[in-house]
Specification:
The protein is mainly alpha-helical. It contains 64 helices and 15 strands. The protein has a four-stranded mixed sheet. The protein has a three-stranded mixed sheet with strand order 1-2-3. α18 crosses α20 and α57 packs antiparallel against α58. The longest helix is centred in the C-terminal third of the chain and has 28 residues. The chain is extended and about 150 Å long. The two termini are 84 Å apart.
């Protein structure tokens, strides 16, 4: 080595030759450099311009040279610098080398090998950094490329170095270059930063990139990519995150995926996750960017847009970070205002719904927000319109969401699902997507569930009736597949189906003939079918076609003629046709000329069928004329009994009411006065002589059947008369006649009820598709049964217990007088008529306006007789039940309606439309209620001796209950409480409080003021009325009134809830002499009393400590000098104690579940939460301990059932909270669990008692209780072990005890003695030894099973005492 160095020095010191003088300095440097590297085993191939050699040997050679000869090393550096300053030589140095040892080097450049030498690395980096800006020429900016890619090659040499000698200087050089180079080059340089700089320089680079991010939005993507690969300190990370969050509302849509991915990947704590989630919700807005994405349409598969990629980034973030999902759902659930939700909230929930691991949580959140009205149709519409392209990838998930919503029992969920279908069909205009939507709707129609079918049909109707009808035409043949399901559909559903068919077939098609299209052919076949079932379907189809044809005179005329010719031979089909045509006439969808012809035909057929002229002499002598309001001036009579006399004319009575319905609807549609037919209002009906009712039992069965049929048709006729004339403006005489007809109906129903009690084989003349109601006789008395089932039969063993619970539990020992017997006899006789009431003619909604009649010089209360008022209120209550019918779960998960199929007249209006129409009626109901209260307070029933007056007054209290029930049904209707229907809710509240409120209208315009006024008014009415029969309907109405206020109304809501609780408590504390309270009434009152109180736990404690012990003392005849008075709750007796116990235990579990401890609470709130938990555990222990004194099966079963739920809630909610705060509250938590252990011991004893006694009620509950207790044991053990507190935990054996606290040696030997000893009579005292045993066994363990298995004992160690 020394000899070579000497020769090298001589060469440098010799005089140059002529050839050498012509050489360039770079050539000399090149020779010197090659001579140096040749000593390290490297050679340069001039032909290939490539270096070859072993890199490891070269590194060692240069390192040795740097250590031995500094002068030679400086000469090497000088030659290397000269080469680096030459572009051609630099390119050669940047090219990969061919190594002799492929496994070691593998294609690294010579410059990369030299950078691995620490002695020369800073020298090379300085030269490269100085030369790098030279290659950033402006001429390359246009195409985005670099000349020979030298900058990229230079930067690639600096990547992934084993060690950077001066990393800080390198980072400064890079940041300086980035600061003044062109933007397109800045992106390239920034992308290399994470691979070049070392860890010590990361913070400086992050600060530089953060500032650069604020200055230039064009560099967002490369900067965020670089930041994602750098190690950033938490404080600096927070600053970067805040900068990025501010960019969300102004960033380019193509940059959003990178921004969102960075934000979701940078969060590590709960606080940071909350900030990111809130920032995404508030700052991210695609609305301004949606226009650019909507223009990218095409038939082929399009590349993903920036918005689609952004949602993909959100999806991947939520999928791989569970905490993100939890925080987001929590934030969404905490929002209680509709206007605070954005479309991105709905998009994120749809994304979560599409993922299997988050689907259930997202579905629960969606259901909660939809039910509360926070997610509205407008929000859904904006979401679909704004994020159409991005949501395409979740199309199948959205359909699944719509399917599940449509199957829900909740009204808002069904409306939400329907809106999804409707909006998706409008927004997603591709044929494939629309066919998928229709296919899903067809699946629901064929499911057999009435609720699903109705909702699907409603969606199709909205699409047909809206602007999208032309988009459905390509799918007509597909939609006609519904024809295959017609036999399984109800008539209302068939009407909707035919309305869809006829609208698609005939609208916007001009004067096309309807004789030869598919729909008309199907309808003709159905009309000509001999079966009444198919004929009815054909009638529905034909009327739907008439409705769709509109003003097409000739086509409508042909269809009407077809209908009448097909139905005139069969009375039942003709009657049904009249009802269907009356609906079309009412909608004014028939041409006026056709309507006049139809009126003449209806009038002629009606007069010919049932009307007969009568003379004055006939009126005076004929006893068969009933209820004549015209006296001797009556022009006609309604011949009912004469038609019943002949079998061939009996069926003509079926067309009487439908024919008149068609007739008066034609008059109304033609705007003709009803004077020409108002003679029918007071015309008598021809029936049987009144004397036959007295000897009804002696008549033959044929005569009895005729009388029953005559009364039935007479009732139907008068009901249809009310439909015809109640909607018209009448004078005083007409109103009096209408009320007289109501009274006539009541009388006829009483007569029919008496006849049905004797003739039990009567079958109402129902139409063929419905099952007739039959009257069956029992032992000793007649009994009516309808086609409704009463549920599963119960075993004989449980009948007595169930009867004891459902029968009246509280009654004051007072004999009932004769007046009370007379008062109650009237209501018990109406059971026969009520069984067939659904077969009577429907009273239209307009008949409710009879309640609004006012009369000059007459008071409403005196003119509206109590029976009339009660009958009208019963009918209104029945209408509201039908309108607001709630679906119930049927067999196999199918949904059915709670009531029978809605009647035809009520189907014409939605519930909200009916409420809006009936607002004046509800206002008048309050006036009637005031009159009832005044009448009852002025006339006591005990002072009335006249039997008729007493029976009349007996209707007032039930009428008041019906008024409360009607108002409660309206205010409890969930869609009425939605934000979009607040105006209607205010109108309703204003109507029922206008006459009583003294404030100005402006002051009462808010919802809070209206609710407060209504609550105050009806609360005062209840105090004045003070009747047991009205207490439950009133308290239900007040409770519904409080619920209509959202939780955001924190000012008035607590006060109203407290007043409601006090009112329920007053009813429970009242003595109610002479009355009996049913268990359901006590249950509802007690639940409201506890649930609506300010402090439910405090109230439960008061009941336990004051009222329960007094019941026990009174039952055992124990008296004390200090406390000799009765307890406050007079409805709490020994017989009602099990019900009280069950409800209080249930409400304790509810109150404990409402605590819902939060992990991110302040220290003060943590203390309050611990106190509430401790109180709940103490109360639970006190309730469980009552099983030692009163061991009725009901109490034991309630303790096991609700005790298990309390333990499960403690495990799910309380234990995680206690585990988190165990270190700071160790003593309190151990005391709480120790107290809970006493309760779990008692539960173990109850389980043992149930197993030994083999009680069929207790045995099914034991396995679940055992599992909950065992889970509690091991969860508590894990918590103690985690917090290094196992000294307070000890495993032991718990000896077997019975309910009295006595030890049982072996279960097998003493099971019989134990069973006898455990049946403690309620008057027996608690053994004195029991308290000592409890104290002695503080550290004794609970057992998991009776057979002395290892169990947990949570005892207090000495240091924690």
């Amino acid at each position: 080595l020394s000899m070579s160095n000497k020769r090298f020095s001589n060469h440098l010191g010799s005089e140059p030759s002529n050839s050498q003088k012509k050489r360039k300095p770079s050539d000399d440097a090149n020779d010197i450099f090659h001579l140096f590297i040749s000593k390290g085993g490297f050679k340069y191939n001039q032909k290939d311009e490539q270096y070859t050699g072993d890199g490891m040997l070269l590194k060692k050679h240069i390192e040795t040279l740097a250590l031995i000869d500094k002068q030679q090393f400086d000469q090497f550096k000088s030659s290397l610098k000269t080469l680096l300053l030459n572009n051609d030589k630099l390119k050669s140095l940047l090219k990969p080398c061919s190594s002799t040892i492929q496994s070691i080097i593998g294609g690294e450049s010579l410059l990369k090998i030299l950078l691995g030498v620490e002695a020369i690395q800073p020298f090379i980096i300085d030269i490269l950094m100085d030369r790098l800006p030279e290659f950033l020429s402006e001429e390359n900016e246009s195409d985005g490329t670099l000349s020979d890619n030298i900058p990229k090659l230079i930067l690639s040499q600096l990547r992934w170095l084993d060690r950077v000698v001066d990393g800080k200087k390198l980072s400064q050089k890079l940041t300086e270059i980035i600061g003044y180079c062109q933007p397109f080059m800045q992106c390239e340089l920034i992308s290399f930063i994470p691979e070049i700089i070392d860890d010590s320089s990361h913070n400086d680079v992050v600060i530089f990139l953060k500032d650069l991010l604020c200055e230039s939005s064009e560099l967002t993507v490369p900067i965020l990519d670089a930041l994602s690969n750098l190690n950033i300190e938490p404080d600096l990370q927070e600053q970067v995150r805040e900068v990025v969050l501010k960019m969300l509302n102004s960033a380019k849509i193509d940059d959003l995926p990178v921004i969102l991915r960075f934000l979701l990947q940078s969060v590590t704590t709960i606080e940071s996750i909350q900030k990111v989630i809130n920032g995404i919700r508030t700052e991210l807005d695609f609305h301004s960017l949606s226009l650019s994405t909507q223009t990218n349409k095409g038939k082929g598969k399009q590349p993903k847009t920036g918005e689609t990629l952004a949602l993909d980034a959100l999806r991947s973030g939520f999928q791989f970070q569970k905490e993100l999902t939890n925080v987001f759902l929590k934030e969404i659930n905490n929002i209680e205002a509709e206007d605070k939700h954005t479309t991105i909230d709905l998009c994120l929930l749809i994304i979560l719904y599409s993922m299997a691991n988050h689907k259930k949580a997202a579905e629960l959140t969606l259901k909660r927000k939809i039910t509360k009205g926070h997610f509205t149709r407008n929000l859904l519409k904006n979401c679909f319109n704004t994020h159409k392209e991005a949501l395409l990838q979740f199309f199948s998930s959205i359909i699944n969401l719509a399917d599940s919503s449509l199957r829900s029992t909740n009204v808002q969920m069904k409306q939400f699902g329907s809106s999804i279908y409707e909006l998706m069909f409008t927004v997603f205009d591709e044929k494939f997507h629309r066919q998928e939507l229709l296919s899903s709707l067809m699946t629901h129609i064929g499911s057999g569930s009435p609720i699903e079918i109705d909702c699907s049909m409603d969606v199709l109707l909205k699409l047909v009736e809206g602007k999208t009808v032309h988009t459905l035409r390509p799918f007509v043949s597909f939609i006609k597949g519904i024809l295959d399901y017609l036999e399984g559909l109800s008539e209302d559903q068939i009407r909707k189906a035919y309305k869809v068919f006829s609208t698609l077939e005939y609208q916007q098609r001009g004067e096309k003939e309807v004789d030869h299209d598919d729909l008309s052919i199907i309808v003709r076949k159905q009309l000509s079918h001999p079966s009444m079932k198919y004929k009815r379907i054909g009638i529905i189809g034909a009327t739907a076609m008439i409705r769709a044809l509109g003003e097409s005179k000739e086509q409508q005329k042909a269809l009407i003629d077809l209908l009448t010719n097909s139905c005139k031979r069969l009375e039942a089909s003709f009657a049904f046709m009249c009802d269907e045509l009356a609906t079309v006439v009412r909608e004014k969808n028939i041409h006026r000329d056709n309507l006049e012809d139809l009126k003449e035909e209806a009038e002629g057929s009606f007069i010919e069928a049932v009307c007969t002229n009568i003379e004055q002499s006939e009126i005076e002598s004929d006893e068969t004329l009933w209820m004549n309001l015209y006296g001797l001036k009556a022009p006609t009579k309604i011949s009912i009994f004469s038609l019943l006399a002949k079998p061939e004319t009996r069926d003509q009575l079926l067309r009487m009411c439908p024919n008149f319905s068609l007739l008066h609807n034609c008059y109304l549609s033609l705007n003709l006065p009803l004077k020409s037919i108002d003679g029918l209002l007071g015309s008598p009906v021809e029936l049987f002589p009144p004397g036959q009712l007295e000897g009804f039992e002696q008549l033959s069965h044929i005569q009895q059947e005729k009388i029953c049929l005559g009364l039935f048709h007479a009732i139907n006729w008068f009901r249809e008369v009310l439909n015809g004339f109640s909607s018209d403006d009448h004078n005083l005489k007409t109103k009096e006649k209408i009320l007289t007809r109501v009274e006539n109906i009541i009388v006829l129903e009483e007569h029919l009820n008496g006849c049905l009690g004797v003739y039990t084989k009567f079958t109402p003349p129902c139409l063929p598709e419905s099952e007739p109601t039959k009257i069956k006789s029992g032992r000793g008395r007649s009994k009516i049964t309808s086609n409704k089932t009463s549920g599963r039969p119960k075993s004989n063993k449980r009948i007595s217990e169930d009867a004891e619970e459902t029968e009246n539990l509280y009654e004051v020992k007072e004999k009932e007088g004769e007046k009370k017997e007379k008062r109650g006899s009237k209501h018990t006789e109406t059971s026969h008529v009520s069984a067939i009431k659904h077969t009577f003619r429907e009273l239209e909604l307009e008949t409710a306006f009879i309640l609004t009649y006012s009369f000059e010089n007459k008071k409403d209360a005196s003119f509206f007789k109590p029976p009339i008022l009660h009958w009208l209120l019963e009918d209104l209550n029945s209408k509201l039940n039908t309108l607001f019918s709630v679906p119930k779960k049927g067999p196999f998960g199918m949904m059915t309606l709670a009531s029978a199929q809605p009647r035809l007249g009520l189907l014409e209006r939605s519930p909200l439309e009916a409420i809006a129409k009936l607002v004046p009626v509800f206002a008048k109901l309050c006036a009637h209620l005031s009159n009832i209260v005044n009448t009852l307070s002025s006339n006591s029933c005990d002072d009335v001796e006249d039997i008729h007056e007493l029976q009349s007054l007996s209707h007032l209290t039930p009428s008041a209950s019906l008024i409360f029930s009607c108002l409660e049904k309206v205010i409890s209707y969930e869609p009425l409480l939605l934000p979009q229907n607040v105006s209607l809710l205010k109108e309703f509240l204003l109507a029922i409080t206008t006459e009583q409120a003294a404030g100005e209208e402006d002051e009462r315009s808010t919802l809070d003021a209206l609710v407060n006024d209504a609550f105050t008014y009806f609360e005062c009415l209840g105090q004045t009325l003070n009747k047991l029969e009205t207490s439950l309907p009133l308290i239900n109405f007040l409770s519904a009134l409080v619920r209509c206020l959202p939780d955001s109304h924190k000012a008035s809501l607590p006060q109203l809830r407290a007043r409601l609780s006090d009112r329920a408590g007053f009813l429970l504390q009242n003595d109610w002499p002479g009355s009996r309270i049913k268990s359901e009434c006590i249950k509802v009152l007690l639940q409201i009393h506890i649930r609506e109180s300010k402090e439910p736990l405090e109230l439960i404690g008061t009941l336990m400590t004051r009222s329960f012990p007094k019941v026990y003392k009174n039952s055992n005849n124990v008296t004390s000098d200090e406390d000799d008075e009765k307890h406050d709750y007079l409805t709490l007796t020994l017989s009602t104690f099990p019900l009280y116990f069950k409800v209080i235990l249930q409400e304790l579990v509810t109150a404990f579940s409402n605590l819902n401890p939060d992990n991110s609470r302040t220290k003060k709130k943590i203390s309050i939460q611990l106190i509430d938990m401790s109180i709940s555990v103490v109360l639970f222990h006190g309730l469980v301990e009552f099983t030692k004194y009163i061991d009725q099966t009901k109490i034991l079963a309630a303790t096991l059932r609700w005790g298990r739920q309390f333990i499960e809630l403690f495990i799910k909610h309380a234990l995680p909270f206690l585990a988190e705060h165990f270190h700071d509250n160790q003593h309190d938590i151990i005391n709480m669990i120790s107290r809970l252990q006493l309760s779990t011991r008692t539960l173990q004893i109850l389980c043992a008692h149930g197993k030994v006694t083999q009680d069929q009620v207790l045995v099914p509950l034991i396995p679940l209780v055992k599992r909950a207790l065992e889970t509690l044991i091991y969860k508590v053990k894990v918590m103690f072990e985690t917090n290094n507190c196992l000294d307070a935990f000890r495993i032991g054996n718990l000896r077997h005890k019975n309910l009295r606290g006595q030890y049982v040696d072996t279960q097998s030997q003493q099971s019989r003695e134990y069973a006898e000893a455990s049946r403690v009579h309620i008057k027996e005292e608690k053994p004195e030894e029991e308290g000592e045993e409890e104290e002695a066994d503080v550290n004794e363990e609970e057992m998991i099973d009776i057979n002395e298995e290892e169990t947990l004992d949570v005892g207090l160690a000495d240091e924690f005492a």
